[in-house]
Q: What sequence folds into this?
């Protein structure tokens, strides 16, 4: 009797064990299928999400991409034996290239083009900005040997060197003379189409503002709304901003003694100067009112044409044989993909 009772008693327990075994096997199978299905053993063929588009008004973070927020106009860049005009909105070629003479070539903007000339040379040419092929200039532009930017899209021209000239003619792009001006001594451009007389330790506006007093010191920079003069005495130097309306302001800005050229932004807010520091040529960008240095760029040419302001925000400059666009507001440095070997002079023609 004991044997059958044990058989009867063990039967249900054995059935329960088999049931649990079956359930465990099923569970293992289900888990395995889940791993195969969701664990990535099969390749994921779903397309990758598209990158977020750059919205209008936003700038690419690519330091080589042409900025999309430059002011409208044409940036003229010399190099590789030619001068090209770049559309500031896209960086694309905007005008037909013109051959560039050897070192020393200067670009002077006109209302309907830009003069490509070499001091003392007769190979002056006009580079048109409306898609026309470059052509040799006419009239007073052909006979002149030196030029300075003039008002209303014209240029000042003289038949002698700028260092000795005392008679200047205001000429339009067709070579027609609008007026002639006699100045007491040699002059430089004031950044707004007029003249500054730079004498021995003094700077004086002579046209069109002929009644201004001279500011003692050396000319550091010019711009469309004023110029900066540095005066030194007993080892200390003072910097003065002389605005176009004649008012002056002492500045905290300081530049080195070996400064060859400087340019003020249109609103007199920023200053870019070409100077030597420790035997190296640099372009230093600073805030006029405080002297705060925004950026320092290596420079090789050390000329007045190494930097041009496009507006109060953007500066175009040449650094280490490359074109650089500097956003002073966001402190962004862009070295665009421009195929120009050994960039030379720069010029800016607003739209």
A:
């Amino acid at each position: 009797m004991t044997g059958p009772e044990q058989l009867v008693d063990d039967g249900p327990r054995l059935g329960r064990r088999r049931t649990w075994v079956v359930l465990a096997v099923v569970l293992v199978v289900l888990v395995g299928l889940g791993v195969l299905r969701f664990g990535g053993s099969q390749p994921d063929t779903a397309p990758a999400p598209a990158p977020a588009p750059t919205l209008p008004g936003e700038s690419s973070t690519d330091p080589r991409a042409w900025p999309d927020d430059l002011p409208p106009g044409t940036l003229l860049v010399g190099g590789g034996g030619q001068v090209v005009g770049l559309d500031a909105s896209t960086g694309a070629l905007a005008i037909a290239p013109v051959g560039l003479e050897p070192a020393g070539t200067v670009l002077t903007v006109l209302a309907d083009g830009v003069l490509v000339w070499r001091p003392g040379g007769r190979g002056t040419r006009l580079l048109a900005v409306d898609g026309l092929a470059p052509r040799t200039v006419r009239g007073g532009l052909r006979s002149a040997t030196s030029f300075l930017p003039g008002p209303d899209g014209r240029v000042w021209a003289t038949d002698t060197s700028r260092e000795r000239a005392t008679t200047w003619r205001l000429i339009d792009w067709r070579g027609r003379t609008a007026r002639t001006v006699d100045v007491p001594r040699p002059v430089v451009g004031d950044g707004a189409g007029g003249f500054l007389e730079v004498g021995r330790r003094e700077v004086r506006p002579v046209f069109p503002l002929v009644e201004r007093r001279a500011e003692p010191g050396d000319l550091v920079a010019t711009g469309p709304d004023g110029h900066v003069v540095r005066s030194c005495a007993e080892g200390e130097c003072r910097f003065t901003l002389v605005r176009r309306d004649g008012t002056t302001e002492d500045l905290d800005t300081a530049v080195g003694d070996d400064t060859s050229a400087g340019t003020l932004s249109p609103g007199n807010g920023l200053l870019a100067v070409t100077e030597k520091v420790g035997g190296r040529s640099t372009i230093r960008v600073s805030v006029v009112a405080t002297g705060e240095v925004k950026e320092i760029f290596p420079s090789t040419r050390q000329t007045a044409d190494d930097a041009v302001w496009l507006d109060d925000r953007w500066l175009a400059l040449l650094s280490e044989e490359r074109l650089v666009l500097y956003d002073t507001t966001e402190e962004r440095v862009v070295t665009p993909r421009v195929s120009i070997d050994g960039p030379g002079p720069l010029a800016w023609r607003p739209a």
In short: Residues 1-59 have pLDDT under 50 and may be disordered.
